[in-house]
Amino acid sequence: MHVIDVNIPQQAYKIAIAAPGLDRLGELMSELNLGKKVLLVSNPAIFKQYGERAIASLQAAGFDATSCILPAGEQYKTLTSVQKIYNAALEKRLERSSTLVALGGGVIGDMTGFAAATWLRGVNFVQVPTSLLAMVDAAIGGKTGVNHPQGKNLIGAFHQPRLVLIDPQVLQTLPAREFRAGMAEVIKYGVIWDAELFVQMEQSKRLDQMRYLGADLLQNILNRSCQAKADVVSKDEKEAGLRAILNYGHTIGHAVESLTGYRVVNHGEAVAIGMVAAAQIAVALGMLSSEDAIRQDALIQKAGLPTQLPTGIDIEAIIDALQTDKKVKDGKVRFILPTQIGAVEITDKVTADPVRQVLQHMRSVGK
Questions:
Q1: With b meaning 16 or more CB within 10 Å and e meaning fewer, what string describes 262-288?
Q2: Which end of the chain, N or C, is less surrounded by CB atoms within 10 Å?
Q3: CATH 3.20.20.70 given to domain 176-364
Q4: Strand (E) or helix (H) holding 335
Q5: 25-62: per-residue pLDDT in tens?
Q6: 292 is in an annotated binding site
Q7: Which 3 state secondary structure label does DSSP give 21?
């Protein structure tokens, strides 16, 4: 088992990467001296595959564990879905020492974490991510929340998990499109933080399906991505400064997601589009070499991810949507722009014109 410490002063916790690891959930939670009542939240497909194993592990460790099943999909990441978790928590008579366990991808993790942050003013929370995207990004760092019709993750809270348990074996049943979505976040880490990881991925012939990755590369992807996120959030828990770099590709990506109703592109695909745009903006501003932008785009394409805007999306609507982004400060949109592979800068000096020009090029290329 590979263990990474997330050293946040108020509540440090561990990321445990173990294959197989799901059957150790109860054992690892027992070490945290949590209350006996546990509500496991999942979606129908994930619970069918892994729910019984997780519940059995919890019960074997002496926990009184039951489940709450929510619909799958970003379009259900709403306060209505969170209300269902509250209802289950009330029916179960959860106490402040009780624990919500998120078994699923980023959507389940975000909603369960938000419910944990707000039920009884805060109960324990454990992440058991089942998608690559959740393993390397969404499950770590304590960001929780739901979407508003006008923007992604506008309603939320910081609430750190007590444990993140990653079992790489569950990725074997992950649909190929979802695996590719997770690779977008991995590429992000290579661009913003870990040039060595970026080079390792460049050396792989294919990145679009897990079966083309060697076991060593997959383990490195999990270890180094989780370590990168742990390093950043340990230095900046609530996005006062450094942590904003984790939003690389997300500024325009979130706008694309919300404007297409969360049904045309998934989160990873939107982030890929956003990274292409951010790199091109950086090139236009003289911050990044065109060679490094080409390297990034080649890696995105190798992972089978889009590099062009979805058909029919309105560029002016994207620019307008940027103003509702959570990273807006004093009315100025903060962009995370690369300066080289492995390093980025945060800036609010980007005007609408270069953004518009880059987006028009990304649309015209696809015609």
A1: beebbbbbbbbbbbbbbbbbbbbeebb
A2: C
A3: no
A4: strand 335-340
A5: 999 999 999 999 999 999 999 999 999 999 999 999 99
A6: no
A7: coil
Count how many Cα atoms sit within 13 Å of the Cα of residue 52 in the half-sphere of its side chain.
Answer: 2
Instruction: State the Cα–Cα distance between residues 256 and 270, nearest whole angstrom.
Output: 6
342 Cα distance to chain centroid? 19
Is 108 annotated in a binding site? The answer is: yes
Q: Which residues are catalytic?
A: 121, 143, 185, 229, 239, 243, 247, 250, 254, 267
Query: Hey, where are the domains in the chain?
Result: 2-173, 176-364
109 marked as binding residue: yes
* 160-211 pLDDT, tens digit each: 999 999 999 999 999 999 999 999 999 999 999 999 999 999 999 999 999 8
* Distances in whole angstroms, Cα of residue 328 to Cα of each of 237, 239, 321, 331, 335: 18, 12, 11, 6, 9
Q: Can you tell me the distance from the alpha carbon of 293 to that of 278, in angstroms, rounded to the nearest whole number?
A: 9
Judge whether 245 is annotated as a binding position.
Answer: no
**Is 204 annotated as belonging to a binding site?**
no
- Helix axes of 352-364 and 267-284: crossing angle, nearest 10 degrees: 120
Q: Which fold has domain 2-173?
A: Rossmann fold (3.40.50)
